[in-house]
Request: fold
Amino acid sequence: MPSRQKTILWSAAALLAGLSLRIIFVLHHPRWVGDTMVYADLAQNMLSHHVFGFSEGGLQPTLIRLPGYPAFLAVCFVLFGHANYLAVVCIQVALDLLGCLLLASIAARIWSTRAGLITLWLAALCPFTANYTAAVLTETLSIFCVTLALFALERWQSQFTLPLGAPSSPAASSQAKVGSQDAFPASDQLGLGWSLLVGFACSFAVLIRPDEGLLAAAIIPAMLCLAFRSPARSIRSRLLPAAAASLVVLLPLLLWGIRNYRVFHVIQPLAPRYANDPGETVPFGFMRWYRTWGIDFQSTFDTYWAYDGAPIDIHNLPPRAFDSPTQRAATANLLTQYNVNQSETPAFDAAFAQLAAVRVAAHPFRYYVVLPIARLADMWLRPRTELLRIPIPWWQFTNPAASLFSIFFALLDAAYLALAVLGLIRSSRKLWSTRPELLIATLALVALRCALLLTLDNSEPRYTLECFPMVILFASAAFKTSSPKGVISTEGRRP
Reply:
C-alpha cells in the first residue's frame, strides 16, 4: 500500500478513536451545570435583551465575564435552539478533533510524517482534553485557539523566511510562469494572511478567557524576533505582520473596554481578576488566609469555593493550616461564628486577615515560595478526574475502583509530561536551528502560564490544560527517529 494511503488510513483511525472517546464522555459524563448556567444566562440576555448581563434580581449588566464564550453559545442557540447544550458539545468535539489535526500538521511539517501521526494519536486519545468537550465551559475553545495560533505561526514563519522573490506555494510558482513581472506580491511574501490568523486566534482566545492574553504575549514577540532577523527586508515589511496581528488582538479589547467604561465608568478591557463587578466587595483577608495553607484541589472545593454561601468544616482543613494549638482554636472559633449565617462580612474578613498576617510573618518563605510552587505542582500532577463521578479525595480509597482509576489517570498524566520533557530535550537543538521562533513561543507560553499560576489562590487542574497542545507536540518528538549520521533532514523546512 502506498505510503500516502497508509498515512490517510492511520489518520482516519486516530480521528475515529478520538471521536469515540469524546462520545463516551458526552454520553456518560456531560457537564452542563455551574458556570454553564452563567454563560447561558449571558448568552440568552444578549439575544433577548441585547444586554450583556445577568437575569437574577432583575436584568443587570456585568463585566465579570468576557463576551467570547457567551457569544459562541448565543450563535449555537440561534442555530440549534435555546439551551441546546448537546449541539454545543458536538461543535466542541468537532473543534477539538480539528485542533488535533492542526497539531499533527505542525509536527509533520517541523519533524516528519511519522511524528505527525504520533501527535495525532496522542492528541486524539488524550482524555484530559477530551473530557472537557463534554462540558459547556471555555476550556475546549481556549485549547483550540492555542493550537490554531501555533499552527498559523508555523505557517507564517515558513512563508516569511522564504528568500525574497521565491514562490510561497506551488500555485504561486505556476502563476509566476504565466507572465507577471511582479509574480510574488509583498503581502504574499510577508505571510499577512497567516499573521492575521495568528491575530484572530489570539484575539478570540483572550475574549474567551482573560488569562489567554498570555498567548499573544508569547507569540507576537516571537514574530518580532523573526522579523528583525531578516535584514534583507525593509523596516515596514518586518513590522507589518506583527503589527497586523497585534491590531486584530487589541481592537476587540478596545471596544470591550469602551463598553465597560460607558456602562460602569471603569477602565477594564479584561475581566477582573476576582470576578467582581464595580462596587462588589472582595474578601481579600479570607483569600490571604487561604493562601497561607491551601495547596490541593480538595481544599479549593471544601473551603475556597464554600466561603460566602456554604459551611466550612474545620476538620476538612489540613494540619498545615495551623501553626499552634492556640491558632487552631482561634480558627475554629472564627469558623464557628461564620457557619451561623454562612456569609462574608467585613468583620470576618478582617479576622481572617489578622490570622493571615500572623502566619505570613512567622513563615514568609513558606507563604511566598513553598506554597505557590506546591499549588502549581498540584495543578500539573493531580489526577484530572474533576469532571468525572469520582470522589475528589481519591487517596482515601472509599471507592477502590474509582481510586485505582484516579491513579491510572495520574500515571497517564505523568507519562504525557515525561514524554514532553524527553521530546523537548531531543528536539530543541533542531527546532532552534530551523524554527527558533516556534520554540520561543511554545516555551514562553508555558513559562508565562506557570508564572501566572504561581500567583493564584486556588489550585485547579484545568488551569494547565491550555499548555497541553505544547505538551502533546513535544511528547511526539520523544518518538522521533534520529537522522543517520552526516545526513541532515530537510523535511521540516517545507513551505
Residues 11 and 117 are 7 Å apart (CA to CA).
